[in-house]
Structures are given as structure tokens and as C-alpha cells.
């Protein structure tokens, strides 16, 4: 919230006079008396401060529930002054406010900054964050990044860990939503971020699986070997997703949860889908021959059905890269991550 012309709302106690403005018709030898504090007056900041600071001191008991009355405070200020609502805080006194836990388009290496003196603290914090990813998928990618520097962490990596913890503190009531009216049909999304690792140019595998509308399994993991082409990285990710999909299908079968004969697997790479349906090998696919045989077998058997999905609707982007606030909130909404803060 911003008060328009804030200093004009201050009450002047002293008598202050000024020369009439140019071109203002006035009697000779007359001056103007100020009724309001103007910008430039020495008394203006003091008068505006006195508007809010009574001479007496009142004892106040601050409770957590008072944050719920912030709307009443905004209405009160609008009634007293002409206010402008600036929306969500993004920049203040040289500080840029971030609403996400990980900055997009930033690549970290194993030699960023200066070495961290205490390795135990870093490892304990990252270990706790890894545990939290079992219920907080929105930090999976960020934790995947900081966990790569467990051997020799630097201050830059430690700062990212602290940023993640601050974000968790602000979203402590956020969690997964499981609908009682959702279907029990399984589906999966697969994607990869090609050569995203700055040190060894390895790709990142990401997948998530839904039971109806409910997110039940996800992963963000660096691939073991570099990929020469983006298609190769996508196909390796598709192989990992297929393995997880089959495991869940067998688990649901043991739990007597019926599944359709064919399960949809969504992918945003047309080349990968062509390779999965083509029995011809060439030099660009010989490095992933095992994955090719594995996926083609299940496609031919009718166990999985590859479905193309546009990048704008690809939910696994959440687990392969960082995003700006708009895209970040869109993915959170689609993954059914909601706030369960009590009233």
C-alpha cells in the first residue's frame, strides 16, 4: 500500500508562510500561509510521522491471528487517506522480493564462491530437504540441484539451501490434494532437460504419475551419462518413466484396483515417439538400444500408449527446470498443490 502525496496529510503546528506562486494574482505585500505540509519543508517528515505516532505509549499484545485482519487495516487506511494498492510486493528499498524458491536461468557449478567451512550443517539441511520432497514435490528440482554438492559445498550452494527453507516456511500449510471423487486410472508424464548440468553436461530426468487427478509419484534426477542429442535424453527419461509406470500398475493390481489395459504416457518430443514406433535402428539410437527395446516392447504389447502433449501443458517441466512466478503458479495449480491453512 502506498499513500498518495503522503506529506500533504501532515498537520502543521507552526505558522509557515511562503511567497505566492508565479502568475498568481494577489494583493501587494501579501504572502500565503500554508495549511498543509509540502514536500521540501523541514517540518513535512515530522508532521507526517506525528500523524501516526501519538504522544503516549500503548502496550499491545501481538497474536498470530492478527494477520487475518490485514484486510480491515487496508480498509481503514483507505478511509483515512487516498491510497494506492501496489499489489504483491516485488521490489522494496533495493531488495527484489522473490516468490519462488529457486531462481530461473541460473546454473550452479561445483566451484561457485568460496568453500563452506562446516560440511555437516549443509549435509544435515539437504538431508532434511530430501525427506521433505516425499510430500512437497514443488521443491524436488531445487533439492535435486543442491544435493549434487554434498561432497564439497560452497557458500553459494548454502545460500540456495537457506532460500529453499525460507520458502518452505512461507508455504508450510501447502500440500497435495487427493480428491475422493477422482477416478483411479493411472497416467504418466515424462520429460528431460538436455545437458542442464554445468559441470558434466548431463541431462535431468523428470516424471510424474497421476492416479486420476491425484499426484502419487514424481522424480527429478540427473542422468548417469551425458546425452549427445536431446532425443537421447528424452528417451532415457521415457525409459525410467515406463519402469515406474509398470511398477505402479503391478502394485495397483495387487491391491485389486482395476486398471484399463492401456495406460497413457504423455511426452512432448515427437522424435521420441517416432523412435518408439519404428523398428529401424540407426547410429543416433545405438547408445540407447536397451531403452528402445524396452519401450517398444511395451508399446507393441499395448501396455502403454504414447500421447504427444504440447510443452505448455507439460507438467513435468516442474521437475526438470526452474520457472518464473507465473509459470510456477500455473504448474502448482495443475499438480493440485493447495494450501490447507486452518481458519
Explain the overall architecture.
The chain is of the alpha+beta class. It folds into three domains: 2-84, no CATH class; 99-172, no CATH class; 181-339, 2-Layer Sandwich (Nucleotidyltransferase, domain 5), CATH 3.30.420. It is built from nine helices and 13 strands. The protein has helices spanning 43-50, 70-80, 119-132, 140-146, 155-170, 230-254, 270-277, 289-301, 325-334; strands at residues 2-3, 17-18, 32-33, 83-84, 91-92, 95-96, 174-176, 186-193, 204-211, 214-222, 263-267, 304-308, 337-339. The chain has a five-stranded mixed β-sheet. A hairpin with a 2-residue loop joins β5 (91-92) and β6. α6 (230-254) packs across α8. Residues 1-52 form the Reverse transcriptase Ty1/copia-type domain.
Compose a concise summary of this entry.
By secondary structure, the chain is an alpha+beta fold. The chain has three domains: 2-84, no CATH class; 99-172, no CATH class; 181-339, Nucleotidyltransferase, domain 5, CATH 3.30.420.10.
Radius of gyration: 29 Å
Widest sheet: strand order?
Answer: 10-9-8-11-12
The total tally of domains equals 3
Report the total helices. Answer: 9
Number of strands: 13
**Overall geometric form:** elongated
Low-confidence stretches: none
Question: What amount of the residues lies in strands?
Answer: 15-25%
CATH architecture name of the largest domain:
2-Layer Sandwich
Q: What is the helix content? A: 25-40%
Distance between the termini: 25 Å
As for the CATH topology of the largest domain, it is Nucleotidyltransferase, domain 5
The H-level CATH homologous superfamily of the largest domain, spelled out, is Ribonuclease H-like superfamily/Ribonuclease H
Largest sheet: 5 strands, mixed
* Computed structural class: alpha+beta
Order of helices and strands: EEEHHEEEHHHEEEEHEHHEHE
CATH class label of the largest domain: Alpha Beta
**Overall pLDDT score:** 84
InterPro entries: DNA/RNA_pol_sf, RVT_2
Organism: Rubroshorea leprosula
Protein name: Reverse transcriptase Ty1/copia-type domain-containing protein
Domain Reverse transcriptase Ty1/copia-type: 1-52
